[in-house]
Amino acid sequence: MGAIEHPPIFSLPGVPDHVTYTWLAMIVLVALSYAATRRASLVPAGVQNFMEVVLEQFNGLIDDVIGRDGRRYLPLIATLGLFILLGNLMSLVPGLERPTGNLNTTAACALVVFFAYHFIGVKNQGLKTYLKHFMGPVVWLAPLMVPIEVISHLARPLSLSLRLFGNMTGGHILLAIIFFLMGLDGLIGWALSGSLGGALVGGVGGLIMIAFTVGFLYPLKILVSFLQAFIFVMLTMLYIAGALEHAEGHEGHGDEHTQEHL
Amino acid sequence: MRRSLILAGIAILGVPGLAVAADGGGGWVGPFGVLVAGFAMAFAAGLCGLGQGKAIAAAVDAMARQPGAAARIQTAMIIGLALIESLAIYVLVVAMILLFVQPIK
Prior knowledge:
The complex is a heterodimer of chains A (about 260) and B (about 100). With about 260 residues, chain A is mostly helical. Chain A contains nine helices and no strands. Chain A is globular, with a radius of gyration of 24 Å. Chain B is an all-alpha fold. Chain B contains three helices and no strands. Chain B starts with a helix and ends with a helix. The chains are: A mainly alpha (about 260), B mainly alpha (about 100).
């Protein structure tokens, strides 16, 4: 993989590449928030308008999944969502190293979510009530339910990190191989080398692959970036809702909303 | 028909053996690891396609029956598709480990 990949265009000595680009994503997000709140006015305009639309979308999602009082978790959820979205989009630009394409970054995000939703559950209901819900609906099922619940709770950060990492790295490997096949070592180089067979097959093949990449692969990868960030945020909200909802039994918030909107 | 399939299967399984023999009997898990990675990924992709097809079929059917609930059904469909796809992504991660990290040579 190192043979066909170009090293990133900007790397600090002594710091791994994905950490450098995590810092770049952080700087971009901080600059965006600073520009949005610099002259905060009641009637928004420009960057403030755009950020308010984005945050309203997050608020709408939180209302649907957790309920009205989930809005105090908006900082955690929106920060995770915007950071993962920016990190995913950075994997599309050749020359930048991707922060979320490395298992370290995605595992860090998943561990933050894991500790956050347990902490939220314990803080809202007390330790004993929260632990009692690991034991299942009936008390004598506890020796069966506790290992199952523990394993399923431990599988959540694992699946969160692996899903994000696998999607980003798989797409990146695909793009690297296609660039290699159609680049100066491959089809375009064969077309420019001066031989007639090279110009015919290499030129036509290279043009077809360029059209395929720009027209199909890049939109698909942009869609996958948005989708994976959305899925991460959605699952975070579902875990927080699951940690919060035990107090009222297992009614579920979705049914109440359906009754209201009818 | 069946005999030709059996012969093709033996040939595919025998090719890594030839590679190992030419290599001088070094590691024999590596070539088989490549073969297994390819087959596992193909299997996972095919089954993932089947599962997602059923999910989309059910979602589109429900949206046709009740167009008012289309937004909620679409959200649930997107979440379900991503969760099914993540199973194929796990197989991709194992295949990448077999191909690039090569824990057993």
